[in-house]
């Protein structure tokens, strides 16, 4: 895999992580409890840390780090905001939207790990992938608990 290919994979993960960061921050604005708001902001901070780590490697390989999230991510955040204004958007609905974003992130990291990445980059992507899976599972568990409580 040449440097340009590595940069492309890393920039795709940066874009995914930016979508996650922005998505968690947007969802935190609408959270109905302080506990959920705090959790979502912590997840946003973890995404920001992942972005910072990935950007270092993009630069190391001679590339320019991705500076924004995806159009799809922006549309999703807009949908969250609109849905909140039009309906009684409860924590269950917020968690459903967060899980959708995390499903995408899990798939993007899985795809990145199928590439022939340099060992140090693979180790970073694997570590971050495990964190994304933990986030997904936690969000899904909380969503299931919210469903059971309603």
TrEMBL record:
Gene3D superfamilies: 1.20.1260.10. Residues 5-115 form the DUF2383 domain. It holds the Pfam family DUF2383. It comes from the Bacteria. NCBIfam families: PA2169 family four-helix-bundle protein. This is PA2169 family four-helix-bundle protein.
């Amino acid at each position: 895999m040449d440097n340009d290919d590595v940069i492309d994979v890393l920039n795709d993960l940066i874009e995914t992580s930016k979508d996650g960061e922005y998505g968690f921050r947007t969802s935190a604005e609408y959270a109905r409890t302080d506990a959920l708001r705090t959790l979502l902001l912590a997840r946003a901070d973890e995404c920001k840390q992942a972005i910072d780590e990935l950007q270092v490697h993009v630069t190391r390989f001679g590339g320019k780090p991705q500076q924004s999230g995806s159009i799809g991510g922006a549309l999703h955040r807009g949908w969250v905001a609109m849905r909140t204004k039009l309906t009684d958007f409860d924590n269950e609905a917020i968690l459903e939207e967060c899980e959708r974003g995390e499903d995408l992130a899990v798939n993007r990291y899985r795809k990145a790990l199928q590439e022939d990445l340099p060992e140090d980059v693979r180790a970073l992507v694997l570590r971050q992938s495990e964190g994304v899976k933990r986030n997904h599972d936690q969000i899904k568990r909380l969503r299931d608990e919210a469903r059971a409580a309603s």
